[in-house]
Request: fold
Amino acid sequence: MKPVIRKATKRDSKAFLELLVGLANFEHLAPPDAGARRRITRDVFVNKKINLLLACVGESVVGYALYFYTYSSFLARPTLYLEDIFVLDEFRRRGVGKMLFLACVDEAVRRRCGRMEWAVLTWNEKAISFYEELGAKRLDEWYVYRLPSDVLGRLSSAADLHSQPD
Reply:
């Protein structure tokens, strides 16, 4: 059966959260806790802060792509940022990941983005090879930095907002 890529609906939240746990396991990370699961579900399906595409084979959801838009000041166009792309192991090497990725490319073109960006774990050689075979270029001149939430709270003048429940 051929995979179908479609936009997620709220009915898909349980299947999406199961895939998110699958990604955490693949990346050797702790899965999202209950609060994070509530927030991401709300941000995808209610607040529409992030976009979610699903790969389906029959009635089964077998993969997803989670993305949002940033902005390039020099291009004066949006950038599609691919936060996650994940396919269940038993459906890999069947073109599902490529279909999800190209659906994001189509979205970027449709939204007149100046580019598309994402990060890849340095140990994920299969993903690196996949992206480079498609023509993606690894940026050597940029470092990725991150401020974790505890540092955000310490640095922010609005730290009291950080401690409020979700």
